[in-house]
Amino acid sequence: MKRIAIVGLPNTGKSTLFNRLTGASAKVGNWPGITVELYSARVILGADPVEIVDLPGIYNLHGFSEDEKVARRFLEATPLHLLVVIVNATQLDRQLALALQAKELGIPMVLVANMHDEARRLGIEIDREGLEAELGVPVILASAKHGQGLDEVRRVLTERLHGARETLANAQVFARDDAIAARLDEVYQRAVRQPRQISNVLTDRIDVVLLHPTWGLPLFFLSMLLVFEAVYTLGTPLQDGIAWLLAHAREMALDDATARWPAVLRSFALDGMFEGAGTVLSFVPIIVLFFLFMGILEDSGYLSRAAFLMDAFMSRLGLDGRAFVMQLMGFGCNVPALMGTRVMRSRGLRLLTMLMIPFSLCSARLQVFVFLTTAIFSPAMAPFVLFSLYVASFGAGFLTALLYRRGLRNTEPLLLELPPYRFPTTRQMLLRGWQETSHFIREAGPLILLGVVLVWFLTHFPFDAAPASAETLAGRIAAFFAPVFQPIGIDSLLTVALLFGFVAKEVVLGALAVIYGVGEDSLAGVMAQRIDGLQAYSFMLFVLIYTPCLSTVAVLKQESRSWAFTALAVAWPLLLAWVASFVFYRTAVWLTA
Amino acid sequence: MTLDQLPTGESATVLGVDGEPALRMRIEAMGLRAGRRVAVVRRARLGGPLQVRVGLTDLIIRPVQARLVRLTIDAPGTPPP
Questions:
Q1: What pLDDT score was predicted for residue A32?
Q2: Minimal CA–CA distance to A290: which of A249, A365, A342, A241?
Q3: Are A318 and A409 in contact, with CB atoms under 8 Å apart?
Q4: Does A313 sit within 8 Å of B21, measured CB to CB?
Q5: Which of A89, A311, A335, A519 could lock A113 by a disulfide, CB 3.0 to 4.6 Å apart?
Q6: What was the ipTM of the complex prediction?
């Protein structure tokens, strides 16, 4: 089968072109010599099946960034029939450098000058034949976002593939430090005509407001708040809807269908497998909505502006402004926020951000805290208790970044393009939401299911004991760890609740009701009698800081592709949770004694 | 003079980029090459990054990296790039 690879600088619409050419058929796959998965798809061009591979965005063939190494290793090891270089037509003055370098590789090449519609609007005239003559390769002017010029891309690719031979890149090119500056200017001057003064007036005007020295930051927080509200006010009812549907399906059909099954098997199927599948599904609406709105932030160009605004602060933590956006988004749900870190291309920076996000007080934890604060604390105290938990949430995140910034070093300089403001297309956003969701279900789904079943087993075995009681494995584990949890004011009943909380914070309240042997309606009263304010706060501090949920762990693994990192991301918060609760509880007990 | 010292609103011509090869090439790939005109559009507060306009690209760069870009300031009255 013939094989094409697409290369280009970041933000040139490379993935958009790839998606346009391949539809939604793209799959991630492994390639020899590369640890990162690349998207590829099989399509029919002319009459032949062709494999198209989307390489990560690169600035330079000699570069040393992680993405550039990946692209380089791929090109060194994989013979190609055709190389498609995509450039931003409005920035040919610098982007043609990559085309000139790529030509040296000796692989048959086609150049796609994308965003041609924008270039035309700015008054940039590209002499296509002139450029073809200068470079010696076919040039296509296109706008992948709007689907313009794509038929021609397909036609030229088909034509070029006809009779093309597999070629391996000339590896010497990667080592050579070339002097293309002069040639770049020459080609540009001969083939492109631009007006004397170019500036994107509208973008400049918007930036005067959005990047204003005083108002820029408040406006940034306001827009974050709006996006946050949009994602979660739309997402929560959808999540509730899915939960309602699943509960009904269970009531109407599954309960009856399994009525004759042995009790253990029935409990395994319903409380284990079915609940686990439900946990996976409950994330779907949030992930779709999150990527819809992240798409708007990213494609509109605002995410780079957020980096500009927040960088002075975040760079001191070894992070950049985009990490802060993801941390904020984590306050709704950690899962999509972790997936969103993919915009960061440096692995160190990304892992550090991923270590920090799980401390964001997500809406599931908020449910537990609202319940406990109203149950245990006076109405006058409750808001302050809740507020202090938010402060602790940011504190734990920033402390973690400070402690680990040397180990997970950001290897990339903050050199981001500030693109003109653009409207994202609905098609792009929906496609992204779909891809991310199916990726989550395939990658994180099995792990979540396994975890739910494991916790089901711990809280139900031996099967003749009452679920979650002291006789079950969970009860015995809690008793075993009593010396660890007693000093921080968490008794063995609450310890079992923590074990449940490992699956998802949503189930903690239900679990507490089971553990205390009361209905959820009377739980508040019972708990107020059994535990005091200090114990409750210590418990909430622990719940805030330790592993948010199984789904977060599964996504940490999905995104980092490293068990070692995932283990760290579970162990460190556990330790920090214990230390924080210990310091709080012992100090408070000592002060009130 | 280096890029981090260029006053906001002023323009200059790049003389060259210092630093280790990987970083140098990355800065050059963003358009900051010898001979190109560059202007500082704005600066973020508290020592934050600079917004820089070079050719047809706007980019943000931290002062640490901007220090690697050597330039000569344009004569007053030269139209901005």
A1: 63
A2: A342
A3: yes
A4: no
A5: A89
A6: 0.90
For A335, counting Cβ atoms within 10 Å of its Cβ (0-12 exposed, 13-18 middle, 19+ buried), the class is: buried
Check if the beta carbon of residue A335 is closer than 8 Å to that of residue A357: no
Instruction: Please report whether residue B60 resides in a domain.
Output: yes
Residues A94, B55: C-beta atoms closer than 8 Å: yes
Report if residue B26 sits inside a domain: yes
pLDDT at A29 over 70: no
Q: Is the CB of residue A101 less than 8 Å away from at least one CB of chain B? A: no
Does position A34 have pLDDT exceeding 60, yes or no?
Answer: no
Closest chain A C-alpha to B9 CA, distance in angstroms? 13
Residue A281 reports pLDDT greater than 90: no
For A283, the 3-state DSSP assignment is: coil
The shortest CB-CB distance from A312 to any of B41, B46, B58 is to B46
Domains of chain A, residue spans: 2-193, 216-363+383-410, 442-592
Strands B57-61 and B69-73: unpaired
Structural domain range at position B19: 3-73
Query: Are B56 and A90 within 8 A, CB to CB?
Result: yes
In a domain? residue B21: yes
For residue B76, pLDDT over 80 is answered with: no
Q: Which of A61, A62, A58, A64 is nearest to A87 (CA)?
A: A58
Closest residue to A63, CB basis, from B25, B55, B79? B25
Task: Name chain B contacts of A90, Cβ cutoff 8 Å.
Answer: 56
**A contacts of B54 (beta carbons < 8 Å):** 94
Distance from CA of B67 to the nearest CA of A (A): 13
Count of domains forming chain B: 1
Give me the CATH code for the A2-193 domain, please. 3.40.50.300
Nearest CA to CA, how far is B60 from chain A (Å)? 5
Q: Is residue B29 part of a domain?
A: yes
Residue in B25, B57, B64 closest to A60 by CB: B25
The pLDDT tens digits of the residues spanning B48-75 come to: 899 999 988 899 999 989 999 999 988 7
Tell me what pLDDT residue A286 has: 80
Q: Is there a contact between A311 and B49 if contact means CB atoms under 8 Å apart?
A: yes
How is residue A42 annotated by DSSP? E
- Does any CB of chain B come closer than 8 Å to the CB of residue A209? no
Burial A371-393 (b: 16+ CB within 10 A, else e): bbbebbbeeeebeebbeebeebb
A446 pLDDT band, cuts 50/70/90, is confident
Nearest-Cα distance to chain B for A224, in Å, is 19
- Pair B2, B70: CB distance under 8 Å: yes
| Structure token digits, residue A265 | 């098997």
Q: Which residues of A touch B48 (CB under 8 A)?
A: 308-309, 311-312, 315
Q: In what order do the strands lie in the sheet with A139-141?
A: A27-29, A38-45, A48-54, A2-8, A82-88, A109-114, A139-141
Interface test with A, best of B58, B59, B64, B65 (most A CBs within 10 A): B58
pTM (predicted TM-score): 0.78
Query: Greatest CA span in chain A, whole angstroms?
Result: 87
Q: Would you mind telling me the total number of residues written for chain A in this entry?
A: 593
**How many residues would you count in chain B?**
81
Contact residues, chain B, for A315 at CB < 8 Å: 48, 62
pLDDT digits (tens, 9 = 90+) for A324-335: 888 888 888 888
For A572-589, give one letter per residue: b (16+ CB within 10 A) or e: bbeebbbebbbebbeebe
- Specify the CATH number for the domain of residue B58: 2.30.30.90
